[in-house]
Design goal:
Oligomer: single chain
Largest sheet: 3 strands, parallel
Distance between the termini: 36 Å
Strand content: 5-15%
Helix content: 40-55%
Radius of gyration: 21 Å
Bound molecules: adenosine monophosphate, tryptophan
Shape: globular
Structural class: mainly alpha
Length: 334
């Protein structure tokens, strides 16, 4: 049986945090053998906010290495860097010309980021979801595993595909409609300093997130200083206690325990008793990922060769879709 195709990506803005890992990467690893997978480091997306040219390249390599360190297996996955495959930019342009501006102005993430960036909003930030649609549609992906925050962008991707097929497909499906794959657990990991805000790379406070490469001491310190409340006993689902819910969820996911088991184990614990449990589970979960990361980075030329192979495989598929789109739009052949 032919396997369905999966596509997803993460931006190389700094290190990956537990939100990226639990909301996205971990799920990619868990289901990888059921699908034909394409996982991309979306560096073209990273320049929609002010970025540092000195670190963009190495940040992209770091993310690719973390994909491998987290357990993605090249037998099932193609791993590559978005800017290495020029079809992404090219399809984004073509899709721009069929996407109404007001669809983009309605995107929640655009509105939030535009407020954060103040005066400094570039056209790329508005256009970000069209590039994301191009990423996905180029590979004719069936499924896109992401965190909850990306749901609206996936709906837009489908709308763009429907519109393209309708206007230019002459009854044929040129761009396949992808389905989101959003797992409930881990879909929204919240900040350590505010349980009502999602954990994010762009939060100015490093104490708000745990990064996959944080050393044990840093993890210990961040959990020690995270926001708590004055109630004794740990409970899920109390709207008055978002931090408690978030940290219990993290504990369950990282220790591999069910919600019911965590609820029973932690019911009578105070914060001072719970925090060391969470610290230990986090360090133990990240330790093998960090060790594998060091191994990958130490092997001269290995990562480059993975990314080169990835690029070649990705280019072949993306090129086919791009040609079909250009044909449908009526461009003259090269
Ligand atoms: P980004 O860091 O914005 O490139 O996000 C990469 C992936 O991580 C996407 O699938 C997001 O949905 C997911 N993600 C980012 N932040 C969180 C979070 N706080 N909780 C769960 N998933 C997240
Ligand atoms: N916008 C996504 C995010 O911030 C990253 C992304 C870019 C992506 N292109 C994608 C995710 C294609 C899935 C599929 O999380």
């Amino acid at each position: 049986m032919v396997k369905q195709r999966v596509f997803s990506g993460i931006q190389p803005t700094g290190n990956l945090h537990l939100g990226n890992y639990l909301g996205a990467l971990r799920n990619w690893v868990e289901t990888q053998d059921q699908f034909e997978n394409y996982f991309c480091v979306v560096d073209l997306h990273a320049i929609t906010a002010p970025h540092n040219p000195e670190t963009l390249g190495t940040d992209s390599s770091t993310i690719a290495a973390l994909y491998l360190a987290s357990g993605l297996d090249l037998e099932h996955c193609t791993i590559f860097i978005q800017s290495h495959v020029s079809a992404h930019s090219e399809l984004a342009w073509l899709l721009n010309c069929i996407t109404p501006i007001n669809w983009l102005e309605d995107m929640i993430q655009f509105k939030e980021k535009a407020i954060k960036q103040g005066q400094n909003v570039n056209t790329g930030l508005l256009d970000y979801p069209v590039l994301m649609a191009a990423d996905i549609l180029l590979y004719q992906a069936d499924k896109v595993p992401v965190g909850e925050d990306q749901k609206q962008h996936l709906e837009l991707t489908r709308d763009i595909a429907v519109r393209f097929n309708h206007q230019f497909g002459k009854g044929k499906t040129i761009l396949k409609l992808p389905d989101p794959m959003i797992r409930q657990e881990g879909a929204r990991v919240m900040s350590l300093t505010d349980g009502t805000k999602k954990m994010s790379k762009s939060d100015p406070s490093d104490l708000s997130r745990i990064s996959l490469l944080d050393p044990p001491e840093a993890i210990k310190n961040k959990i020690k200083r995270c926001k708590t409340d004055a109630v004794r006993g740990m409970t899920f689902d109390d709207p008055e206690r978002p931090e408690c819910h978030n940290l219990l969820s993290l504990y369950g996911l990282l220790a591999g325990k069910s919600k019911a088991d965590v609820a029973a184990e932690c019911l009578d614990l105070g914060w001072g008793q719970f925090k060391p449990l969470l610290t230990e589970a986090t360090i133990a979960h990240l330790q093998p990922i960090q060790a594998k990361y060091q191994e990958i980075m130490a092997e001269q030329g290995y990562l480059e060769s993975v990314l080169k192979q990835g690029r070649e495989k990705a280019e072949a598929i993306a090129g086919e879709t791009l040609e079909a789109v250009k044909d449908a739009l009526g461009f003259s052949r090269r």
